Amino acid sequence: MSCPEPAVKQPVGEAVLEVVYAGGACQSVPVDHSPFRIGANRAGEHDNHLDLSSDKRISRHSAAVICSDGEFRVEDAGQRLGIFVNGEKVESRALHEGDVITLGAADSLRLIFHCEGATADAIPGLLSRLDQAASREGGERELQQLSVLLEATALLQAHLPVREVLAAMLDRAIEVTDAERGLLLESDATGDFLPVIARKQGRQSLPVEGIVLSRKVIDQLLRIKSHSEAADPDSASGVVIQQRQTAVAIPLFTSQRRSGETTTSASGVPLVLGVLYLDSCRVRAFSHLQHKILDALATEAASVLDSARLVKRERERRKLVHELSIAREIQQALLPKSFGRHAHLEVTGANRPCLAVGGDYFDLLELAPDRTGFVIADVCGKGLSAALLTGMLQFAFSGIALGQAAPLVFHNINRFLCTHAEVRRSATIFFGAIDRTGQLEFVNAGHIPPLLVRDGQVGVVSEAGSWPVGFFQSAQYETHRASLQPGDTVILITDGITEAVNRAEELFGPERLLRSVERHAGKPVDELQASILADVEEFSRGAHQADDITLLVVRYLGHRGR
After folding, report:
1. The domain containing residue 375 runs over which residues?
2. How remote is the C-alpha of 146 from its chain's centroid?
3. Is 562 contained in some domain?
């Protein structure tokens, strides 16, 4: 079988594939290679730039998007049952703004193509439909109005800044309708419509501050999902105050709504980007041709706005990914990289966050030449907020190395979290210190009791402990003691190990952990750690890691060491 040709990263414009999954979830993926390969990666493979292995009906090599001479094309690369563009089966097809690609099954996920500069391709088809309307109505005025639409076509191809394009299209809408004022309103996160561009006759700008609109017309628009035209004398709407007698509002729909797929998003919110709004002091009606031209302008304005939003969202996503990668590097840099040599101990540890950054933390503290401390913590939650708290914990526990009593450190951390309820975080923490004689002193704040391996038998060091920090301000923390014998191994974990799941959604659990430790108990500490993690990985192979995994292994060598 021949290998796919290598993809070359090149400046392919601001092309984006919007992936709409069967359940309604969406993802925007930049088309930044040519060919941009689409398919289902198998285990260990990374052949496809867009991995759709979540849908079992997608072939390994499904489709490819190719950029050549400024044009994007999609080609069938071996998808079972073929690929379809706007419902038509194709082998190869040029892509235009808003084209919907489906792979094989009709009910599979959809890929919606967006590309800066492609929005003008919708105009020729609209012009052909408008030509028929013009022939019916006739007249010089209608031809002038069609020429305005041609001007809009040129604007879309001029690669001007988005705001300038939208303002110019609003000017053309005013000219077509002979309206006195035009507004472009954009929907915000709450669903309200806010004016972002305001124009008046003569292609002049208006300040958007203080503009009062007829909410009655806009609300009617959202109810019927079509044109709204009204002579609105209702003073409560703001129309009489501004002496506006006629208003027309046209919705600017997202690409999904424009392609007729759905009227609402997965959350039930109408897929409306904004509103093209025009009004006048004169009581008048708009002609059929004027409505068609306004439809064309609104469709293209929506395409421009939709593409701009997608590009902005993708840039924000890339920025967030970059910032998270920096946060991950910082967090990993704060964890011990080497555990040094100790006359009385061997220590090793590992941390595997399930996201870019995690809420698990461990550290090693040199308290005195003959006394070594170690700490492991599991912050409630995952991600950046949990990672911030691990940084605070590391700073707090550095106080123990400066001579602070461990129970006092726990008390201060607990008080801080309880008195800052907005943090909404708790944590389980185990701190221990071992001296050359094997005396172990520890404080346990709700953490999983550490395992103790002695002469091949596995048990726990102690069940003694208190509440996790951040639960009750009245919680008390005290030091407990245990004696270790030469060769004893203390194993500390976070619950990401025992709560790891397999494909059957079974937990790894404490019993499997005990059996794993028993099998590998006689190995050196680094091999013991690697073997336990390998057992967990083998058990959960193919399943998603839902929690951070941290493992710390401490072996007491005796007061003489090796």
Report:
1. 335-556
2. 43
3. no
